[in-house]
Amino acid sequence: MFIPTRRALLGASLAGLAAPRLARASGYPDRPVTLVVPFGPGGGNDVTARTLGQFLERELGQSFVVQNRPGAGGEIGINAVADAKPDGYTFGILNTPGLVTIPIERKPRWSLDSFTFVAGLVDDPGVIAVHPDSGIRTVADLVAAAKKEEGFTIAAQGLGSTSFLSVRLLEQVAGVRLEPVIYPSLPQGVIALGQKEVRGAAANLGEGQTMSEGKPWQVVGVMAEERSSVAPQVPTFREQGYDVTIGSLRGFVGPKGVPPEITARLGAAIEKVFADPEYIALAQRTQQPLRLLRQEAYDRHLQESDRKFRALWAVKPWV
Prior knowledge:
Blueprint: H1 3-10, E1 33-37, H2 44-60, E2 64-68, H3 75-82, E3 90-95, H4 98-105, E4 115-130, H5 139-148, E5 153-156, H6 162-174, E6 179-182, H7 186-194, E7 200-204, H8 205-211, E8 218-223, E9 247-255, H9 260-274, H10 277-285, E10 290-293, H11 295-315
Parallel strand pairs: 1-2, 1-3, 5-6, 5-7
Antiparallel strand pairs: 3-9, 4-7, 4-8, 4-9, 4-10
């Protein structure tokens, strides 16, 4: 259904960077803007960058060129944004938890203070799915099964990832022991669940819906404050009595020091895009749960996430 749209988006060409110079908001932008994606083509951040970039080009009259910089769990791409000149021509589509958790678990050359946060864009909440034949239908069912079965395995994708941390948060809230099993990618975790190699699989909702199409995959709950438009029939963990909220919040982020008049112009353009019915429909087709957070709210969300994950690290380090 939406896969052809993704393939078409991935066909967008990359353009070179123009010589750096300080931009003026009155004529901004007067050349292409680079959007760094710290992962390879086809993932959630990449789709967000390419869909949003198309519509920002309409609003601002210049192309937004996606540059994939994968590696080190996103750190290479994040480095590229932190190190860029703050002239308004290099931004990144960066996401939590990595933007917050990497400085907790190791010492990169950047911190949250190294960036200019323009807007939160997409909030893809965490979920846990089980095999439809498992007999597990709710979070309470899953917790009860995990208390009975030693070594209740949950597929996850990397230490410090949303999926891995969602398992640790559920352990903390439910007082249960779970066994995360690390797979290099979500598709491999989906296959493992389908073959009953694991009892469950943790993922982000949108990506999980995409990767599991046509495969055994039953979501027991959404780790968000409210139900998601991607799967409104699925209750939240909180509704089911387990206060677990975590997801991958993708945002529009620049290096520290981008002039406020430029961020204001970009923020206004993003707001217009988010009100465009065509963009809303495209986001729905590509499984992007939109959540617009303006600059101050986005910054505040990241600071709150930093406090939450530092508290989790103090109790149960994930590395």
